[in-house]
Amino acid sequence: MSHRIRTAALPLLAALLVAGCAARTGDADGDLVADAPSPTAAASGGRAVPDLHRVAADDAMKRLAGQQLVGQARYVADAGTPPGLVVRTEPAAGAAVAANSVVVVEISGEGGAEDPAGVTLGELAERHPEAFVGTFIEAGKTVVATNPGTKVADWRARLDKAAAGAKYEVRACKHGWSELAQVKSTLTIRDWSADASKISFGLEIDASRCAVKLSSTQLTDADAKLLQDRYGDRLLLDRNSSAGRT
Fold first, then answer.
1. Domain locations in the chain as residue ranges
2. What is the biggest distance separating any 2 CA atoms in the chain, rounded to whole angstroms?
3. Which of 106, 123, 169, 220 has its CB 3.0 to 4.6 Å from that of 119, i.e. a possible disulfide?
C-alpha cells in the first residue's frame, strides 16, 4: 500500500492539524491539560467554561483555576456518574464568562447533597462553600465561619452531627467564600504593580479573619498600600512569611 500523500492535499491537512491544536492543549503523554477559550470569549477578554463532564473533581478545579475561573463544588446524586466525577457545571460547558467568574461544579457523591458518615466540621465546611467560608481552631474548639446570609438553623443538625459531641462555635463572616475565592483568583494576575510578576507569595482563604491571606517577605510598602487600597478588609497581608509560594 502506498503511504504517499498528494502534495495538493498537504495545505489542507496542515490547516486541520493547526485547527486541532488551537482547540486544546496536551502534555507530553497526549493527556488534555487545558481547553482554549472560544474565539468569542477570547475576543471579549473572557473565558469559555471547559467541558468537565466525568472529570475527577480535583482535576476539574485545577483546570478551572488554570483558566482563571473559580470552581465552587456542589455534591449531587447521579446514578449515571461514578462518585467523585463531575456531572455538569453552571454555567454549562462552552459558555462565555468573565475572568474570575464562579463556576458551580456539580460532583457525583454518595448520598448526593447528604454528607458521608463520619464527616468532620472541617470537611462539612469544605463540601459546602455555598454556606461556609471554612473552619479554624480557637481556644481549643472548632469555629465554623459562615457566609453572609447562611441560615445556621437550617444547618444545625448537620453541624451537631459533624461535631460528634465536641463543642464548636459558629461565626458569620462579612465576606462569603465565593467573593474571597474571586479575590484570590484575581491576585494571581499580579497586576498591582510593574514588579508584581517578580514577587513570590502564598495565598489562602483565612476563615479566622474572613479574608484572603497573602504571605510574602518580598512586598514593598508601596505594594502593600496598593493591595490594601484595592481589596480593603477582604485581604490580610503577612509580610513576615511566604509559605506556600505562588
1. 10-108, 121-172, 177-238
2. 78
3. 123
pLDDT of residue 17 exceeding 60, the answer is: no
Residues in the chain: 246
CATH code that applies to domain 10-108: 3.30.10.20
| Contact (CB, 8 A) for 105 and 61 | yes
How is residue 65 written as a grid cell?
Answer: 483555576
Confidence of residue 170 (pLDDT cuts 50, 70, 90): very high
CB atoms within 10 A of CB 124: 21
Closest of 243, 208, 61, 215 to residue 134, by C-alpha:
208
The structure's pTM equals: 0.76
Cα–Cα distance, 231 to 179 (Å, whole number): 11
- Give the tens place of pLDDT for each residue, 35-83: 333 444 444 458 999 999 999 999 999 999 999 999 999 999 888 999 9
